[in-house]
């Protein structure tokens, strides 16, 4: 019998949510640091950090889509992969 974690990890929705959350945590940490530097820097206007945050939202979605294209096996079930390989053979 599969453990609770294995059943959850085999669900592509749960797996995608966990991977996206991990991606946002790492990416978000870097964005937070840059935003604080921009917001506290007296040489930049106040709206610079807002513009940076808006651009980073669009860029992060694009980057995550590229990561999904690069490693699609992380976002699919193992059974789906083996079945699709059998159909090709």
Architecture overview:
The protein is mainly α. It has one domain (8-84). Helices cover 80% and strands 0% of the residues. Helix 2 runs antiparallel to helix 3. The longest helix is centred in the first third of the chain and has 29 residues, at 12-40. It is elongated and about 55 Å long.
The domain count comes to 1
Q: Supply the number of helical segments.
A: 4
Main beta sheet strand tally, sense and closure: none
Strand content: under 5%
Helix-and-strand structural type: mainly alpha
Summary tags:
mainly alpha
List strands and helices in order, with pairings.
Blueprint: H1 4-10, H2 12-40, H3 47-70, H4 78-88
Helix pairs in contact: 2-3
Compose a concise summary of this entry:
With 89 residues, the protein is mainly α.
